[in-house]
Amino acid sequence: MRALKRARAIVPFAALLPMALTVIVGYLGAVLWSVRISLTSSRSFPSDHFVGLAQYTRLFDNERWLVSQHNLVLYGLLFVAACMVTGFLLAVFIDQNVSGEGVLRTVFLYPYAMSFVATGLVWQWMLTPDAGIGQALAQLGFGAGGFDWIVDQDKVMYTIVIATAWQASGLVMAMMLAGLRGIDPDIWKAARVEGIPAWRVYLSVVLPMMGPTIATVFLLLSTAVVKLYDAVVAMTQGGPGTASEVPAKFIMDNLFGRANIGLASAAAVMLLVPVLALLAPYAYARSRKGRA
């Protein structure tokens, strides 16, 4: 009987073992390996020649890396803001008990089911000056190449923001809608009795109550910013020039195209820093909430 009880107690841990091994070996092991390689002079193959922080010095002396950092910050600010504002407004619209709510939710959420590569290729065609929107504007008499952002070094990052925000806003809408549906209806009744405008209720009451939802959405969008790669490759290949270069593309180019494992590993470690900076406060807040 005791043996049976012990076996039953072990079963949950045995079920979690594959995931634990994946985390320890696949994730933590890969991170530690990257840190180690970043401290060596590795080129085409891993090397044991320790060079300290030389790869990090080379990294921050590299103009492409600095450009990619600037582009990522610009993209991140615009992408997160666009997704959160658009997603919230769509959620507010659907929360008004509009007819065909199920169809609208499906339509708004569908783009997120597409891969970023497919999204990038479609938007590349739409934004190419001699095709898509540019051709349509030319036919309307606005001149050839009336919408040439994708080939303009100063505007190309905005085209990537437009394409990726279009794709991700549906997911934000779904999460925000779930948060809105969790608001007590009595709040709206009391607001109507007091004659408080709807916008003021959303701003002063609803949004603060949706704090956990907003924090989760912000975390998901922020990690998506750090991982930006597919859409850039599909739309611009980092061009024109290096105008749309991003850290993930810099890493992949040095890892596979330039056979510079050491520099790529140093860049990967630096790319991990903002992710940890985002996850640490979130994990700390969750742990404090769990203890409370």
UniProtKB/TrEMBL annotation:
It comes from the Bacteria. The keyword Transport applies. Residues 69-282 form the ABC transmembrane type-1 domain. The chain crosses the membrane at residues 12-35, 72-94, 106-126, 156-180, 201-226, 261-284. InterPro entries: ABC_transporter_permease, MetI-like, MetI-like_sf. It is found in: Cell membrane. It is a multi-pass membrane protein. Keywords: Cell membrane, Membrane, Transmembrane, Transmembrane helix, Transport. Its main location: membrane. PROSITE patterns: ABC_TM1 (PS50928). Belongs to the binding-protein-dependent transport system permease family. This is Sugar ABC transporter permease. The lineage of its organism: Bacteria, Pseudomonadati, Pseudomonadota, Betaproteobacteria, Burkholderiales.
